[in-house]
Amino acid sequence: MANVRHIQYEELQSEEDWQYFVGDVFESADLQYEAFSMVENEPLYDPQIHLKFTEPDFVVLLNNNFQQVKYISTDRNDKYPLAYTAPFRILSDEGYSVLKAIIKREFVNCQGDLRQPNYIQSIGYRSQWIKDFNRCPVVRDYLSKLCGEPLMVTTLKSTYSHTNIGLVDPDKGVDQWHTDSVPFVIIILTCDMTNTVGGELQLIEREKQEASKLISQYNGNVPDEYVKNIEFDGPGSVIFMQGCAVQHRVKPVMAGTEPRITVVNSYMSRNPFAIEKTRYDTFRMEPTTNYEFTLHKSWRAREQLKALLMYNKKWPTKDELIKRLNLVIKELVDCRDLLDGTATDALGYYSTDSKQMRMYDGDYRVEKKVLNLNET
Ligand SMILES: [Fe+2]
Q: What superkingdom heads the lineage (predicted)?
């Protein structure tokens, strides 16, 4: 469609003082989508029982040389954002075993597409434990401290604990080169990779546009000198990363005695003026996305208006007021246009099969499939 407007959020960045505002944590009417139902008889999520934090040995900053430091500065005028962390832990042994049991139960809901051959979506609509874990304020506050930015759970409930399953298949990457369509993620290794060959999480320590050029230039086979292998630290260990800003992939699993399973919880800034990193296009084929994304944009618009209502630093000029109103209006116009297809925020990903960037469209989505993983 020639007339589709391509939304470029990065151009909106600016540094005015009113654009730093910590909004209220997103909450919604929390309707249950009719096709899903909560599974009964799960343990009740309890942070006292299910969480046990350790600290990562280092964090890596999103600057030119991906500098490794112990902590991120808390001074927002003097800091680089998070690229990724060393592995650490969030779940207790008990928490990990509950998570693993729920994911195993969810195998029947596995689906696939050309980027990720096997994954499970929408678990937050079927599991109260998963929903509570994703929304847990203790986890949220811990991660906020690690990255130096107030975070909250993603507004897109269908992505709660998105689970990626890597089966032994030397020809298929578990996930292709991409940047995420949500801002921050924790990736929880939910299997034992002791006997696994391959399945490495890799990222390119370069600014993401530069990384994209390298991926195209080398047809996806980016030389080792640019690629960093990210090591987990055993079952239950966690990597925290700003996946929207760093190109990454998961290599094929060449051999192993159990599938490679990662559970991905997504977070976003509580600042409603933060550059938009949540993408409609990537998720638009999920049945709940239209409503979830509308809630997402409504939250941003509401919190931006709240920032205006509560602003008491200096008398705003007419131009400033117009600028602020335009930002709120843009949130809602973008949302409407994305829903009705007159605008797109498509990011796409690099397809190793076709050796080019691909969008999430056409024959991208593979039919829903039921994996028989009972042997695991
Ligand atoms: Fe990712």
A: Eukaryota
Please tell me the total count of domains within the chain: 1
How many whole angstroms separate alpha carbon 261 and alpha carbon 118?
A: 10
Within a 10 A sphere around the Cβ of 229, how many other Cβ atoms?
10
Token digits for 80?
């680089």
Which residues constitute the domain of residue 124? 5-366
State the pLDDT confidence band at 376, using cuts at 50, 70 and 90.
Answer: very low
Residue 150 within a domain: yes
Distance 184 CA to ligand 1 centre (A): 10
- How far away, in angstroms, is 154 Cα from ligand 1 center? 14
Give pLDDT, residue 361.
63
Place of tokens 């409407």: 336
pLDDT band at 203 (very low <50, low <70, confident <90, very high): very high
308 C-alpha to center of ligand 1: Å? 34
CATH number of the domain within which 301 lies? 2.60.120.620
Cα of 254 to ligand 1 centre, how many Å? 20
pLDDT, tens digit (0-9, with 9 covering 90-100), for 331-340: 999 999 999 9
Q: How far is the CA of 297 from the centre of ligand 1 (A)?
A: 22
